[in-house]
């Protein structure tokens, strides 16, 4: 089967190699037609990496979320619920939204292609996010709390980059930068809305 071929090649190598040719690896994923279960595993593995990075932050810097260390550790259960349940559902909802937007702009991919693009982007971006999270935590004593935390937050940029390339390939868009621009605009609108809600 196609998914078995992907496993033989080595998923770790495929994930790391995706940054050399993001659209090419996305095309390989689509050609392989991994099952819905495999796509779910992609998302859950990415959630595991996010969970580990956030758990490390809770342990090393619990005051970053306004808690003492004991309180932070007590909330690890809820952290797991967020990354393995809430985040997973959220990514599927974003895949549906992305699919509808892509089709509105002339995209040719089906709903499966959109889910595959979201799952693959989440998987390949998660190790970069984790690396930047640990880098920020390791530099906290030298550059201060806020700059160190900002380094970790930059980890979401690779996800946006990967998502743009994956959706562009999944829907047959030639101009990846245009897809990236639309996603960046939507993210800015989302953050602006959240800031307005928090200030009201």
Automatic annotation (TrEMBL):
Domain (Yip1) ranges: 25-192
Major place of residence: membrane
Signal peptide start-end: none
Species classification: Bacteria, Pseudomonadati, Pseudomonadota, Alphaproteobacteria, Rhodobacterales
Domain of life of the native organism: Bacteria
Subcellular location: Membrane
Membrane topology: Multi-pass membrane protein
Source organism per UniProt: Paralimibaculum aggregatum
A matching Pfam family: Yip1
Transmembrane segments: 37-56, 76-100, 112-132, 177-197
Key words, A-Z: Membrane, Transmembrane, Transmembrane helix
InterPro entries found in the cross-reference section: Yip1_dom
Name of the protein in question: Yip1 domain-containing protein
């Amino acid at each position: 089967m196609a998914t078995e071929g992907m496993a033989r090649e080595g998923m770790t190598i495929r994930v790391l190699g995706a940054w050399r040719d993001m659209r090419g690896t996305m095309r390989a994923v689509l050609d392989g037609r991994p099952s819905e279960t495999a796509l779910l595993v992609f998302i859950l593995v990415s959630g595991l990496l996010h969970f580990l990075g956030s758990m490390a932050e809770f342990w090393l810097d619990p005051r970053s979320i306004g808690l003492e260390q004991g309180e932070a550790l007590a909330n690890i259960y809820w952290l797991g619920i967020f990354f393995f349940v809430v985040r997973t559902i959220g990514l599927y909802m974003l895949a549906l939204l992305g699919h509808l937007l892509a089709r509105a702009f002339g995209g040719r991919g089906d709903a499966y292609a959109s889910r595959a693009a979201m799952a693959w982007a989440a998987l390949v971006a998660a190790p970069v996010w984790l690396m930047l999270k640990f880098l920020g935590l390791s530099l906290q004593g030298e550059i201060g709390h806020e700059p160190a935390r900002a380094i970790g937050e930059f980890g979401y940029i690779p996800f946006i980059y990967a998502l743009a390339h994956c959706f562009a390939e999944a829907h047959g868009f030639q101009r990846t930068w245009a897809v990236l621009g639309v996603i960046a605009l939507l993210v800015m609108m989302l953050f602006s809305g959240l800031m307005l809600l928090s200030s009201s």
